[in-house]
């Protein structure tokens, strides 16, 4: 970014932060964002700043009859910004728009083209809880957002999942290889994730219960997004049973959620 534009951006963000933090945001974060209770005072102050800029800079849209409220915006923004508490970042620069539906999104059935010869029934698209499009919006179902935000220990968080995809896409593609910070090599990242992927695949083939959701086997992008959910939601178990995966995830996010939770015990 040219220095002049950086100056303008920073000046604009300083102006955003000079405004009071909306009490409705504070109430929503306290009530809905389970990870809030494990943050120290300095981290909470930083998260408030991130939320304030995030809400101001993104385009928000309610869809499917959903009326956007400060509660919805603050809950989504706070969970998204938990991911970047320790990162050098630019407020998810790959995210311009956030579209939120009341519940599961059911895409319309595809209609055949005018000259298309249909040789098999056209199946209805599967219902979706969320999507993250490269150079496009993040789409979320509010009921799933709220359930995931409030239960911060079950390994399931829709906002973490979709915004992890957006971090992944900063490298140019959603492939499970986001831009890595200094000190974390591409080789060790791939080795750690590949070893866990292979172990998950073997366990799934044998019908065994697994730590990571088997949806992680879809591809590298989904593996990273699912691993992100478990890294923040079940960090002590990951650190204990999947130490190398935990190490590289902590190296990427520059956070230690297992230690954070230990301090709060």
How are the elements arranged and paired?
Blueprint (H helix, E strand, L loop, with lengths): L2 H16 L4 H10 L8 H17 L1 E4 L7 H13 L14 E5 L28 E3 L5 E4 H9 L7 H12 L16 H20 L14 H14 L1 H7 L1 H11 L3 H8 L1
Parallel strand pairs: 1-2, 2-4
Antiparallel strand pairs: 3-4
Helix pairs in contact: 2-4, 3-4, 4-5, 6-8, 9-10, 9-11
InterPro entries: MetalloPept_cat_dom_sf (IPR024079), MtfA_fam (IPR010384), MtfA_N (IPR042252)
GO molecular function, one term: aminopeptidase activity
GO cellular component, one term: cytosol
The Rg value, from CA coordinates, equals 19 Å
The CATH homologous superfamily is named Collagenase (Catalytic Domain)
Number of helices: 11
Mean pLDDT: 89
Number of domains: 1
Order of helices and strands: HHHEHEEEHHHHHHH
Indicate the CATH topology: Collagenase (Catalytic Domain)
Can you tell me the residue ranges where pLDDT is under 50 for at least 5 consecutive residues?
Answer: none
Distance between the termini: 43 Å
Oligomer: single chain
Principal-axes shape call:
globular
The count of strands amounts to 4
Helix content: 40-55%
Could you name the CATH class?
Answer: Alpha Beta
Q: Largest sheet, if any?
A: 4 strands, mixed
The proportion of residues in beta strands is 5-15%
Structural class computed from helices and strand pairing: alpha/beta
Query: What is the topology, as strand order, of the major beta sheet?
Result: 1-2-4-3
CATH architectural designation: 3-Layer(aba) Sandwich
């Amino acid at each position: 970014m040219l220095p002049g534009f950086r100056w303008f951006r920073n000046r604009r963000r300083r102006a955003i932060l000079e405004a009071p933090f909306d009490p409705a945001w504070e109430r929503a974060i306290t009530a809905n964002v389970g990870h809030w209770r494990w943050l120290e005072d300095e981290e909470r102050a930083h998260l408030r700043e991130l939320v304030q800029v995030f809400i101001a800079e993104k385009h928000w849209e309610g869809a499917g009859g959903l009326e956007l409220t400060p509660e919805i915006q603050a809950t989504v923004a706070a969970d998204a910004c938990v991911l970047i508490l320790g990162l050098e970042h630019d407020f998810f620069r790959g995210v311009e728009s956030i579209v939120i539906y009341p519940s599961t999104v059911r895409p319309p059935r595809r209609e055949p083209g005018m000259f298309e010869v249909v040789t098999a029934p056209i199946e209805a698209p599967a219902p979706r809880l969320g999507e993250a499009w490269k150079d496009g919006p993040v789409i979320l179902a509010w009921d799933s957002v709220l359930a995931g935000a409030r239960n911060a220990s079950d390994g399931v968080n829709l906002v973490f999942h979709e915004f992890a995809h957006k971090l992944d896409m900063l490298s140019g593609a959603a492939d499970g290889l986001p831009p890595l910070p200094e000190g974390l090599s591409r080789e060790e990242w791939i080795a750690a994730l590949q070893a866990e992927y292979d172990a998950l695949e073997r366990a799934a083939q044998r019908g065994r219960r697994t730590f990571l959701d088997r949806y992680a086997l879809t591809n590298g992008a989904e593996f990273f997004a699912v691993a992100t959910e478990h890294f923040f939601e079940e960090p002590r178990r990951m650190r204990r049973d999947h130490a190398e995966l935990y190490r590289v995830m902590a190296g990427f996010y520059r956070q230690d959620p297992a230690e954070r939770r230990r301090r709060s015990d």
